Amino acid sequence: MADAALFEFLHMEMVAELWAHHSDPGPGVSAGSRGKEARAATGQKMSLSVLEGMGFRVGQALGERLPQETLAFREELDVLKFLCKDLWVAVFQKQMDSLRTNHQGTYVLQDNSFPLLIRMASGPQYLEEAPKFLAFTCGLLRGTLSTLGIKSLVTASVASLPTCKFQVVIQKT
Amino acid sequence: MSRQANRGTESKKMSSELFTLTYGALVTQLCKDYENDEDVNKQLDKILLSYFLPRGYNIGVRLIEDFLARSNVGRCHDFRETADVIAKVAFKMYLGITPSITNWSPAGDEFSLILENNPLVDFVELPDNHSSLIYSNLLCGVLRGALEMVQMAVEAKFVQDTLKGDGVTEIRMRFIRRIEDNLPAGEE
Known about the structure:
The complex is a heterodimer of chains A (173) and B (188). Chain A is of the alpha+beta class. Helices cover 46% and strands 16% of the residues of chain A.
């Protein structure tokens, strides 16, 4: 039975390593910029998507380990509530702090003290670095949803560490 | 009430598997990164080995603070005490297992940790032809990094591995020397 700290430390290493491995973006380069910075931006995007992909696989595997009774959700909202309570407690030892929805397939999950950001800073400092620490978790959410039969797009945003919001948009097939 | 209890157990199980699942996904990703490069593929074992040792070391360097804060263990007076703490407190705390300590060298500077199975391999699929040492080195790196932070230079390596078909998993720990001054790594 592995302790939660091991995951946190490993995640930190993965973020640091994948960044160095894939690219050397200059300061102030944001994902999606064009022109001469596009090359570095591509490297940056690749790192985030690799992390997201790993999170997705892990989320899928976690979803597969759920007991049968939890899989009998009646509604989409029940699934999201499950993510906010059971999944979040299992992975981060706390519940999501709020869940909002437009009842049309978009959900915003807010964590006011996201454990993977807490070790970094408080406030607006390091905002540029924050996405690196969220990519894996976005994939995790997407992967667990996938196992529960729901296709989604998950993105995250940070206005002020360590609060972050995960936006889940359900994809209708 | 019982439904809640079930939920709790499942949460715990998921939480404990998160680390091993993530570790497995990382290894799979690394193998994928290199699978199209022919030259690199031949060197894959060495590359993966060289990947996990320093990563494990970095983790160990941070982990020791977490460990000392949570375990209330005092300073160890000799290598035997260190061995006990590693096996009975640290492994128990982080991996939920207690390896046995055996094969002490006559000088008391080497010992083996015997694990019934390799704790990191539950969800890892070994690609064909690749040595299982790649997984082991994360753990060895962690041990080395953590002990260095408490002024002990050690060598840790796997000498047997259930992944390779051995009956048990054995980590050999060797005490090199006490680190007298708090010099930053690389300046000795």
